[in-house]
Amino acid sequence: MAQPLESEKPKARTVKRPRPYWVEPLVTMVILGAWILYSLWEVLFHNTGTYHNYVSPYFSPQVGNWFGWHVLDALYVAWVPFLFRFSCYYYRKEYYRGFFWDPPACYAVDAPRPRYSGETKWPLAINNLHRYFWYLALIVLIFLWKDAIQAFWFGKAGFEVRVGNLLMLVNAVLLTAYTFSCHAFRHMVGGRKDCFSCQDGKPSTSYKLWHKVSEWNVFHGTWAWASLFSVWATDLYIRLLIMHVIHDVRLF
Ligand code: FES
Questions:
Q1: What are the backbone dihedrals phi and psi of residue 250, each rounded to the nearest 5 degrees, phi first?
Q2: Whose CA is closest to atom 1 on ligand 1?
Q3: CB 87: neighbour CB atoms within 10 A?
Q4: How remote is the CA of residue 134 from the centroid of ligand 1, in Å?
Q5: Greater confidence, 207 or 50?
Q6: Which among 144, 138, 173 has a CA at the least distance from the CA of 55?
Q7: With a 6 A CB cut-off, is 231 part of the ligand 1 pocket?
């Protein structure tokens, strides 16, 4: 007997939902919206993001310095992490629900349109390039690690631990967790194979790696939010230092 299409199946009841379905999309919309506005302010209204040996994550790597361009330095690089996040599978779910309300929640809640063209058309078709943005984001991540390590050395004062360099380090760690728990990366290390043990009967290195990435992948949404907040906090801290609103706090 032919199976009914998804759209023809009866809607499931949602009486066990712990809170109204619109709460999560609304919270997402507020937080992501605030972050996007902040990021635009940071990228479009500031020429530099460095304070002594600190570099804001929006401005790294400092491409402007390599070529002697010193106007809106962040524009040369900030598009990479932005497109990486914009095309992330987890964020797609979040902003489709939060901003477009389409679909607003799981299948049990009616979508505003019966047909869904999703990522088959532009501009959302750009999300299919996520796996390529992953490689670019990896390059940026390497620079963020370099910045974080260098931020612990203060010339003649030597090695010091301060709030600023700790933030940069935590940011690099969280971004690493976010990048390597990516669905596309999981597919790259093993998902494309039909059989992991067909060659010699033993789990291959690829299988072990895929298994490890799968464990991280379960928490991808958590890493996505944690790294977004760490980027935000690190940049804001460095921006406030540049503006002389706060002083860097030395811990030891
Ligand atoms: Fe989220 Fe790749 S799926 S970063």
A1: -85, 130
A2: 88
A3: 21
A4: 8
A5: 50
A6: 144
A7: no
Residue located via tokens 């907040």: 229
131 lines ligand 1 (CB under 6 A): no
Cα 2 to ligand 1 centre (Å): 35
Is 90 close to ligand 1, i.e. is its CB under 6 Å away? Answer: yes
Ligand 1 centroid to Cα of residue 180, in Å, is 9
Instruction: Give the residue extent of every domain in the chain.
Output: 20-110+118-181+219-242
- CB of 77 closer than 6 angstroms to any ligand 1 atom: no
Contact by Cβ (8 Å): 143, 60: yes
| Ligand 1 atom nearest 182 alpha carbon | 2
Six token digits for residue 196: 């992991």
CB-based contacts of 189, cutoff 8 Å, min separation 6? 206, 209, 210, 213
Reported confidence tier of residue 169, pLDDT bands at 50, 70, 90: very high
Condensed to tens digits (0 to 9), the pLDDT of residues 80-111 reads 999 999 999 999 888 888 777 777 667 666 66
Supply the pTM of this predicted model. 0.86
Does residue 217 contact residue 203 with C-beta atoms inside 8 Å? no
ipTM exceeding the 0.90 mark: yes
State whether the beta carbon of 237 lies less than 6 angstroms from ligand 1.
no
